[in-house]
């Protein structure tokens, strides 16, 4: 077919097709731009430098004077950063969680027969999950562990006879990595729960909820979510999963926490548990959250 014979084809249909294609591309780009503009923009949560509050800085100085060596502290910082690079765990949150759990004592609980031990105060269930159930939370657990530690050191154990063995939880790189993995798993669980209930949430802030779940259990976190929704509505629950201010307001509301824990325990344990939760939440936010901007003219 030649244009000399069928000029109406060359000068009619072809330009029309090109115009249609151009309009389609413009329409698709407009759709993409609209979707991007509709995505919620969440405020940053975690500080790049840590610990944030001066009371933690003072305590770290005291630990350095007593038992925390430069080598151990440096190893903890290095593998906290490695965990961030591989698992996207906020560095300040992971470091503050370790500090909250053990005061950076890699041998915490090793001599007193405690049910939890080491930097992240691991329990038997935590060891079992990291050793055998990572596939529920990661596509390739073996690859991830190897990527961070150079080899798959599992099964990880509280081996007090071989403190520096790669599989020992008392070996700092292994302890920090296992703690980061367990924290990551808690966040995956909460993402699934929030998605199932069609709740909007800040991906970053959900790490803070995961840290509470790490310490106090996913059942308690879900109980508090339910309490927030029952009392304030679904929108306020989404706010608690999306903004720093709402997160702090609800996770440090003792009365609200008490009602949530009473749905699990009916005895004195609810009071004790609520007090521990409040202390844990306050410590984590003071240690890892970006300081809120001071009101101009305020103290």
Q: What summary fits the major beta sheet?
A: none
Beta-strand fraction estimate: under 5%
Low-confidence region ranges: 294-299
The structural class is mainly alpha
What does it look like?
- This protein has one domain.
- 63% of the residues lie in helices and 0% in strands.
- The protein is built from 13 helices and no strands.
- Helix 8 (205-216) packs across helix 9.
- The protein is globular.
- Mean pLDDT is 89; it is low at 294-299.
In short:
With 299 residues, the protein is an all-alpha fold. Helices cover 63% and strands 0% of the residues.
Helix-strand blueprint:
Layout: H1 7-38, H2 54-66, H3 70-87, H4 91-102, H5 124-132, H6 141-149, H7 172-196, H8 205-216, H9 218-232, H10 234-240, H11 244-251, H12 254-262, H13 269-288
Keywords:
299 residues; mainly alpha; 63% helix
């Amino acid at each position: 077919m030649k244009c000399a014979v069928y000029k109406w084809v060359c000068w009619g249909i072809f330009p029309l097709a090109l115009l249609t294609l151009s309009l389609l591309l413009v329409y698709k780009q407009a759709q993409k731009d609209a979707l991007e503009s509709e995505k919620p923009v969440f405020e940053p949560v975690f500080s790049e430098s840590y610990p944030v509050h001066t009371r933690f800085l003072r305590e770290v100085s005291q630990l350095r004077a007593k038992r925390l060596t430069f080598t151990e502290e440096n190893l903890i910082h290095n593998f906290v950063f490695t965990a961030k690079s591989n698992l996207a765990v906020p560095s300040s949150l992971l470091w503050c969680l370790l500090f909250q759990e053990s005061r950076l004592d890699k041998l915490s609980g090793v001599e007193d027969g405690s049910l939890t031990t080491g930097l992240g105060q691991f329990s038997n269930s935590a060891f079992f999950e990291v050793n055998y159930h990572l596939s529920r939370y990661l596509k390739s657990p073996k690859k991830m562990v190897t990527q961070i530690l150079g080899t798959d050191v599992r099964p990880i154990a509280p081996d007090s006879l071989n403190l520096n063995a790669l599989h020992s939880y008392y070996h700092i790189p292994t302890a920090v990595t296992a703690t980061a993995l367990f924290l990551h798993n808690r966040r995956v669980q909460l993402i699934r729960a929030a998605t199932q209930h069609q709740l909007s949430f800040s991906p970053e802030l959900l790490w803070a909820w995961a840290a509470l779940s790490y310490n106090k259990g996913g059942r308690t976190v879900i109980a508090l979510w339910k309490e927030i929704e029952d009392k304030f509505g679904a929108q306020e629950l989404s706010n608690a999963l999306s903004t720093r201010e709402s997160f702090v307001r609800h996770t440090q509301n003792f009365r609200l926490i008490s009602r949530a824990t009473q749905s699990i325990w009916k005895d004195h344990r609810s009071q004790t548990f609520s007090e521990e939760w409040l202390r844990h939440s306050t410590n984590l936010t003071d240690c890892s959250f970006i300081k809120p901007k001071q009101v101009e003219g305020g103290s």
